[in-house]
């Protein structure tokens, strides 16, 4: 099979298309022919060596495809079934992948391969943030950074469906249009701000009668963190779920006191889909919303396996909207 390996820690140029032996499913594993693989920031962190990884390694952990083989005790799925995954299948930038049967998600009829590959990681992330980390309720004001990104578009739709008013940040007018189409009431183009740390909280408080927002969902990190904290209302919550602009330096807990007894958490998806039941429940809600037409999934760009480095450059350069996919 063909696969994309990171041959050493580094930038996108360390990604190489290689030929590897076809994998054989072990106990409780499915052998899946990959239809599309999701490209995510965590892939770039692993490629760069920010997260400890063996090198070389096949990149990727999300995708969709068709079951073509099963190991012993891999019950619940048959050859020919369409499945998707957000974890449980390391090395998803490949033509074939081994998937832990307990992490396999059944793809409903009517959901395309592209949508099935685009939804799991970002959709499950958006779902746990609005339903479990800081549950969004009707009448709340919410700030979502990178509102035209894959998670941002899904977060906005899910929060609006719960009755919240959503304010987003984006970089361009085109991205503003996408964010508004997803349901954002107000959109701030941060590229036009001279000082985001000072100006964004002023704008947010101006939009909320001086109070600030109940919750900030921040997947950007270093460049937005201070503005996020200053945009919260008293006893509000900041969910720092990513670091697209780099990690946030250590924080003095007294800043949370000074900001109004606010809450700060650094959640990760793995802790919200630990059990099979929780994973399946979240995924079922998301796929149901897609099938019913109440949740839209935007695929912003697709690349061939051989162009994985270009996909990483586009993602890290914030040149994308929605989801980026690799299609073998």
UniProtKB/TrEMBL annotation:
Highest taxon of source: Bacteria
Cited SMART domains: PKS_ER (SM00829)
Entry keyword Lipid biosynthesis: no
GO molecular function: mRNA 3'-UTR AU-rich region binding; NADPH binding; quinone reductase (NADPH) activity
Domain Enoyl reductase (ER): 10-326
Pfam families according to UniProt: ADH_N, ADH_zinc_N
Keywords noted in UniProt: NADP, Oxidoreductase
CDD domains to which the protein is assigned, alphabetical: QOR2 (cd05286)
Cellular component terms (Gene Ontology): cytosol
Presence of keyword NADP: yes
SUPFAM superfamilies linked to this entry: GroES-like, NAD(P)-binding Rossmann-fold domains
InterPro entries: ADH-like_C, ADH-like_N, ER, GroES-like_sf, NAD(P)-bd_dom_sf, QOR-like
Protein name in UniProt: Quinone oxidoreductase
């Amino acid at each position: 099979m063909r696969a994309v390996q990171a041959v050493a820690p580094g930038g996108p140029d360390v990604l190489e298309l290689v030929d590897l032996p076809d994998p054989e499913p072990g106990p409780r594993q499915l052998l899946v022919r990959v239809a599309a693989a999701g490209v995510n920031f965590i892939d770039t962190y692993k490629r760069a060596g920010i997260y400890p990884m063996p090198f070389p390694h096949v990149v990727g952990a999300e995708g969709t495809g068709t079951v073509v083989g099963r190991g012993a005790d891999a019950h619940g799925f048959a050859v020919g079934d369409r499945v998707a995954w957000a974890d449980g299948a390391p090395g998803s930038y490949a033509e074939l992948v081994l998937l832990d049967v307990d992490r396999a998600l059944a793809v409903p009829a009517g959901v395309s391969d592209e949508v099935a590959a685009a939804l799991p990681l970002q959709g499950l992330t958006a779902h746990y943030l609005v339903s479990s980390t800081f549950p969004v309720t009707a009448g709340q004001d919410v700030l979502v950074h990178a509102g035209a990104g894959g998670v941002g578009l899904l977060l906005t739709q899910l929060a609006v469906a719960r009755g919240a008013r959503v304010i987003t940040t984006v970089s361009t007018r085109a991205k503003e249009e996408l964010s508004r189409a997803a349901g954002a009431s107000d959109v701030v183009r941060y590229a036009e701000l001279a000082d985001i740390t000072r100006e964004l909280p002023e704008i947010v408080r101006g939009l909320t009668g001086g109070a600030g927002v109940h919750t900030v969902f921040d997947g950007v990190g270093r460049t937005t963190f201070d503005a996020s904290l200053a945009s919260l209302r008293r006893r509000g919550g900041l969910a720092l779920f990513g670091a697209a602009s780099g990690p946030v330096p250590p924080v003095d807990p007294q800043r949370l006191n000074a900001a109004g007894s606010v809450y700060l958490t650094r959640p990760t998806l793995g802790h919200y889909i630990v059990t099979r039941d929780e994973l399946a429940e979240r995924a079922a809600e998301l796929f149901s919303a897609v099938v019913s037409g109440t949740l839209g999934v935007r695929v912003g760009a697709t690349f061939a396996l051989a162009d994985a480095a270009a996909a990483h450059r586009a993602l890290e350069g914030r040149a994308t909207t929605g989801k980026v996919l690799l299609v073998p």
